[in-house]
Amino acid sequence: MARVSARHPRRWLLRAVVAIVLAQWLIGPVIVARADEPQPDPAGIATGDKGITSDAGGTAFVVTEPTDKTSPDYAKNKQAFDEYQAQAAKEPLALKLADNVGHLRISTNFSWTLLTGYLVLFMQAGFALLTCGLVRKKNAGHLMMLNFAAYVFAFLAYYVCGFAFQFGAAAINAAPANLGGTPTLNHFLIGSGSWGFLGGRGFFLSGPAYDAGSMCLTLFEVVFMETAGYIIVGAICERITFGAFLLCELFVGAILYPMFGCWVWGGGWLSQLGNTMGLGHGYVDFAGSTVVHAVGGFCAMALAVILGPRIGKYGRDGKPHAFPAHNLVYVVTGTFILLFGWMGFNPGSTLGASDLRISVVAVNTNLAAVAGAASAMFLWHYMFGKPDVTMACNGMLAGLVAITAPCAFVSPNSAVIIGLIAGILVDLGVLFNERVIKVDDPCGAISVHGYCGWFGAVSVGIFADGTYGAGWNGVGAASYLGKAGQGVTGLLHGDFSQFIMQLGGATLCAIYAFGFTYIVFSAVNAVKSMRVSKEVELEGLDVPEFGLPAYPEDEIVNAA
Amino acid sequence: MKRVEAIIKPSKLDEVKDALHALGVTGLTVSEVKGFGRQKGHTEMYRGTEYTVDFLPKLMIVVVVVDDLVEPVVKSIADSARTGKIGDGKIFVSSLDDVMRIRTGERGRDAI
Questions:
Q1: pTM of the entire structure?
Q2: Chain B residues with CB-CB distance to A385 below 8 A
């Protein structure tokens, strides 16, 4: 009987579902917003009013009453407030219109954020094609199932606690003003003020998170988390058991990704180091070179080290052997889908179309992609005599990964330089992994996402030109480096402290993702091996693990 | 009756087929095969690591003909499949005991 239930894990599944429903029912009501706190707005009716209408320079339409009577500007501010009050009393219609303008501004930003989120969602198809094309035919079905299941299970983990850990305290230091500020997400589970380590509101997306603005943020952020979840597939495929893989995905979606995400995007301590320690604008990662890609890349590296290389990858003499890609059509198609999805990934990270920097972001993103592909292709041609298609694709992705952090803060020329360097870095990274440290990475995920992600975040500290990001992370809203409107600035434009911050933050990210994963999954691997048996690996994982080859016509099938 | 088996380059199939047609050969069987001869394999690079292709893809065509057609068939296959470079393939001729057409039950020469 026990054998039967082990082979048909329906009971186990049922128990898990019951546990989740029960936990939701028990914990859900405990974490509602208290009466004296901002209340969630599930219908979105009250999100966005005249309070957020402003001119293009960001000057608010509504003048708020000054409270600090000792301030030197008090008399001036009070007069402005009185004039505004008098004007408002004379023109009540203007106020109603302003309310509507504010609501429309949020609507525009919602549309933008949701649509770019859908583009990022489509990147999952790109990852599936890319990684499937890069492996051997006998494992194509295995790759498809990993990519498919990654989306499903990491999403559920993010729903249960990932979102709460990452953004549960967003309103404290990192309120997404473009989406209405999500005022109900206002509690750190660990830490407080400028030293937050883990958010604590919005478990099961219930209570305070059951809010239109908060849900818009959730949709956009969950697909980012999924991207980190997909990255690891490229380095651990062709040898990991399905069960162990699901555990990896739950780990990424529930804690590994959200915790670092909280530090950088959820108003956590890394983002506040500009205020607390005077390090530039704090740690700046616009769309996730480190938060998404380096976390995924270095997590993948730790898992690949634990799993070890595929059978036959290294000969007795330690020389690497090649396992050529089985379908280059998938590889190139997948890469282009990823490029297309990246048009949501980076420009969407403004969380609103009311921020017109989106056009610069989009162009920079594309420029770095083509520059990365070009330099990777030419360097490979120079080293080995032929441009390798798969490495050219890795080069394009390397450029994209590297520009993800700096895309909003740099000029198009800098974007090209960043892309060119990333293309070189990815080539050298692949060779370094394969020949020097001998970590088997079938799809180059560690080099593309890990190394180039690290470089991307550092490049913010080098190339940021100060034209964008005034007041980023609460630093220098009035003026920075003695100039009003000066934004995030890098080494080449006079802010050395930002460079130090970026270098330290990106390196911390690499150590965090590698170390945390290595500790957790070394323990898991000690309990039960995460690797399939030798026979299964040699046969290909499709049939032993999932019961169906990806290309059944290749095998002689007896219909009876 | 003889059986003529020829290993040829895949790109030469059309020319060989047309040449045999011109001779009045009515049937032909083709299979995709892999192997090596004097040409051996070749070495390629994938993501910075060398790999060798030991078995090269070729086509094997099988034709069954009456004895007096053997010489013209062998000659026309050789002429149409030749590029003059290493790897053009080989032709094997062997004698054949019997043939049967499954539909009608005809035997021997009539079944070719």
A1: 0.88
A2: 45
Q: Which residues of B touch A431 (CB under 8 A)?
A: 48
Q: Measure Cα distances from A272 to A196, A266, A268, A460 in Å.
A: 9, 10, 7, 17
Measured CA to CA, the distance from residue A160 to residue A253 in angstroms comes to 9
What proportion of chain A, given as a percentage, has pLDDT over 70?
95
What mean pLDDT is reported for chain A? 91
- Residues A29-79 have pLDDT tens digits of 556 667 778 888 888 888 888 888 887 777 788 888 888 888 888 888 888
Q: Which residues of B touch A435 (CB under 8 A)?
A: 48
In this structure, are residues A268 and A165 in contact, taking their beta carbons and an 8 Å threshold? no
pLDDT single digits (tens) A117-167: 999 999 999 999 999 999 999 999 999 999 999 999 999 999 999 999 999
Token pair for A69: 């009577």
Cβ burial, residue B60 (10 Å; 0-12/13-18/19+): middle
Structure tokens at A522: 């070394």
Q: Give tens-digit pLDDT for B5-29.
A: 999 999 999 999 999 999 988 889 9
With CA atoms as reference, the chain A residue closest to B43 would be A322
Cα R_g (chain A), whole angstroms: 25
Answer whether A385 sits within 8 Å of B45, measured CB to CB: yes
Partners of B65 in beta bridges: B2
| Cα A302 from Cα A236, distance rounded (Å) | 10
Ranges assigned E (strand) in A255-324 = none
Cβ atoms of A442 and A300 closer than 8 Å: no
Q: Are A525 and A534 in contact (CB under 8 A)?
A: no
- DSSP characters for A536-550? HHHH-SHHHHHS--S
Is A221 within 8 Å of A160 (Cβ atoms)? Answer: no
CB burial of residue A18 (10 Å; 0-12, 13-18, 19+): exposed
Alpha-carbon distance A553 to B10, whole Å?
A: 22
Q: How far apart are CA A83 and CA A77, in angstroms?
A: 10
Find all residues with CB under 8 Å of B106, minimum gap 6, and list them.
B100
Residues A519 and A306 sit within 8 Å (Cβ to Cβ): no
Q: Give, to the nearest 10 degrees, the angle between helix A389-404 and helix A358-384.
A: 140
The C-alpha atoms of residue B90 and residue B8 are separated, in whole angstroms, by 7
**What are the chain A neighbours of B49 within 8 Å (beta carbons)?**
320-322, 434
Write the CB contacts of A268 (distance below 8 Å, at least 6 apart in sequence). A169, A173, A191, A196, A197, A198, A199, A262
CB pair distance less than 8 Å for A434 and B45: no
Question: Radius of gyration of chain B from Cα atoms?
Answer: 17
Cβ–Cβ contact B50 with A under 8 A: yes
At A399, the amino acid letter reads: G
Instruction: Tell me how far CA of residue A373 lies from CA of A337, A395, B46, in angstroms.
Output: 15, 4, 17
> Does the distance separating the beta carbons of A388 and B45 come in below 8 Å?
yes
> How many other C-beta atoms can be found within 10 angstroms of the C-beta atom of residue A393?
29
Asked if B47 and A386 come within 8 Å (Cβ–Cβ), the reply is: no
Query: Which single residue is written with the structure tokens 């053009």?
Result: B88
